[in-house]
Amino acid sequence: MSVVRLESIGKSFMRRDGEQLEVLRNIDLEVPERSIVALVGASGCGKSTLLNIIAGLVQPDQGKVLLNDVPSRDFRDWRTMAYMFQEDRLFPWRTTAQNVGLGLEAFGVPRAERRERVRKVLELVGLEKFADAFPHELSGGMRSRAALGRSLVTAPAILLMDEPFSKLDPSIRSQMHDEVLRIAALKGMTVIFVTHDVEEAVVLADKIVVLHPRPGRVRETRTVALPYPRNPLSPEVAEDVRLLRLSL
Predict the structure, then answer these.
(1) CA separation for the pair 58, 72 (Å, rounded)
(2) At what angle do helices 140-152 and 170-187 cross, to 10 degrees?
(3) Is residue 73 part of a domain?
(4) Considering the domain boundaries, does residue 235 fall inside one?
(5) ∠ at Cα 60 (71, 20), nearest 5°?
(6) What CATH number has the domain bearing residue 215?
(7) Domain count for the chain
(8) Is-contact 114 104, C-beta < 8 A?
(9) Residue limits of the ABC transporter domain (predicted)?
């Protein structure tokens, strides 16, 4: 079953000089259930715009988005989808637990249930000892874990990520990759993420969609058949990274 299906998606934006800038053209994409799909391509190819269209934050000018075979305009339960942004966007005046529980507050989940779900998610991402810490008391990796926990607390079936680990150092980024893979397998989630890091795409994804810029369109869809976990230093991963760079 395809959890997300895009059909002939097109999008343009009006520039300040009054000219239309075509960002996406005729994008067709199928994302199977429980798969991990990476969107890669040069800057300006519309990766983030495409992710925002899937999330319902931006409306396409043409084409349609289907979520679980339901047109997105008719899709009611947006709690099945969560979005992890490039910035962690933690509120500095809220504790880790309060930041993680923000989505549950927005959906009106009762306080007792909210507290229990936050507790379980903090354990899941390894932050149970930092529930009462404020963002300035957390390391960069911990802040990313908190942002991931906030995305997971609503129990989404689909997790969208827009370069969420780009500002982390390599060792912490590798740890976050392991966490995403572990949690996605444990929860049976479908993951769609944007990245400029081709190694990250190969390490995480089972399908990589390469977008060609101006306007953005699908140049190639690559399947990564390597078993998990994938060591970035292994010859097999290095070869897939080399071939992916050649296609960009």
Answers:
(1) 11
(2) 20
(3) yes
(4) no
(5) 170
(6) 3.40.50.300
(7) 1
(8) yes
(9) 4-238
Contact status, residue 105 vs residue 79, Cβ threshold 8 Å: no
Assigned domain for 51 exists = yes
DSSP the chain: -EEEEEEEEEEEEE-TTS-EEEEEEEEEEEEETT-EEEEEESTTSSHHHHHHHHHTSS--SEEEEEETTEEGGG---GGGEEEE-SS----TTS-HHHHHTHHHHHTT--HHHHHHHHHHHHHHTT-GGGTT--GGGS-HHHHHHHHHHHHHTT--SEEEEESTTTTS-HHHHHHHHHHHHHHHHHHT-EEEEE-S-HHHHHHH-SEEEEEETTTBEEEEEEE--PPSS--TTSHHHHHHHHHHHHH-
Average pLDDT over residues 58-72: 89
Burial of 118: CB neighbours in 10 Å, binned 0-12, 13-18, 19+ = buried
- Total-model pTM: 0.93
Enclosing domain of residue 23: 2-37+47-229
Q: What angle do CA 173, 78, 183 make, to 5 degrees?
A: 30
Extract the tokens encoding 247.
């296609």
Decide the pairing of beta strands 2-14 and 20-32.
antiparallel
Alpha-carbon distance of 247 to 141, in angstroms, equals 31
Dump pLDDT digits (tens) for 103-125: 899 888 999 999 999 999 999 99
pLDDT at residue 167 in the model: 85
Residue 120 lies in a domain: yes
Taking all residues of the chain, what is their mean pLDDT, rounded to a whole number? 92
Position of tokens 């190639």? 220
Q: Let me know: does 86 contact 166? Beta carbons within 8 Å.
A: yes
* Distance in angstroms (rounded) separating the CA atoms of residues 33 and 83: 17
